[in-house]
Amino acid sequence: MLIRLVYTLILTLAAPFLLFGLYKSKPNKPKFGARWKEHFGITPKLSSDQRPIWIHAVSVGESIAAIPLIKELKKQSPEKTIVVTTTTSTGAEQVAKLGALVEHRYMPIDFSFAVKSFLKAIKPTQMLIIETELWPNTLNVVHQAGIPITLVNARLSEKSCNNYTKVQPLFNLLHPCLTKVLCQTEADADRFERLSVAKEKLQVTGSIKFDIQISEDIKEKGKCLREQLGAERPIWIAASTHKGEDEQILEAHKQVLESHSNALLILVPRHPERFNDVFELSQRLGLKTERRTSQVNSRAPINKRTQVYLADTMGEMLILMGAADICFMGGSLIGDKVGGHNVLEPAALGLPVITGPSYFNFEEIVNLLTSRKAINIIAGSRELSLVVNNKLDNPVACHDQKQQLNSIVASNLGAIAKTLRYVRENQYG
User: Fold this and answer.
1) Among candidate residues 232, 218, 216, 224, the one with its CA nearest the CA of residue 299
2) Which CATH topology does 30-206+414-425 take?
3) What pTM value is reported for the model?
4) Which residues are catalytic?
């Protein structure tokens, strides 16, 4: 088809730049090593001869979201082989934490020859795509091979929907390949339907992110970290922050320190390549800053005069949140570039949640929390400091908000069970 041919030509021209960004060496970013060949379909066969379920989770966020689904799938069918693909090495790092539960491969880039080579090596029975990672050639090749494709935890913001509308002919190549689209909310399903996805393919299963399973081990590690940071001092966390936000958050913390001189900020940059820059920024602003890696290596409590604790590790977000009293969720203070991150992680821990004004990636969830007065939406640095101070000064109100959050999360459990019901319909066994 002409549209696919034009798309492939554009992809061919853009591929060198995309690959340069993917392979570019950055501080704290795992290297691909010899495995770069997997992006071109040179894929090692699995250790088992059994045909696997193929789960694609493009990067860190999707990999973390997939973990409880994978664990439940293995619990129900321990004999079933699962292969997980990621595009990024940081995503692969998260999948590696599952150990022998899964096998990991890198996702081939969206050229038909690469995807065909991957399928020949892996021979999956079905493909599950976490959230909305849609590539025209991949979907076409997988569909032509007779492999069912299910979008899991699918979400489609109004902004993304409008963008797809502008390239509707291209989207028309995508949606016929999809077997099922398991949406987080009715609003997501409505948007997919507006893009001509057949109604019978759409199901609302809720967000698997509500089914966050926080183990007792994670909770205990959070408590231990709190003891190391200071059990009596007020602690707030700014999670998954982006470039352009850290300055605002650190300025807000300076305002918090004027009212609570012993307060500690746990600052968690979203991307590991920014750890050094954020550390230097915090020091330039005159804040006594300590890195988590330094503290872990020394195994000593942090200095009581430390004002900023830079979390320069990966995969510890729930532990870090478990050591805090309040959470600000990043990706929400830099216009419409990011659209926020998962506010359900702190909610599941009962942490009072604050977000900036840009949260379109989690609009339905934020709206739900707002309707129950379980989240604060702030406009900028000054308002952030006022809300943090207010919460630190009102422990009773914080306790009430924690109870509200626990109630909301409990009433929205079950998305994984609903998702697996549809996965079983595809006869993966």
Assistant:
1) 224
2) Rossmann fold (3.40.50)
3) 0.70
4) 62
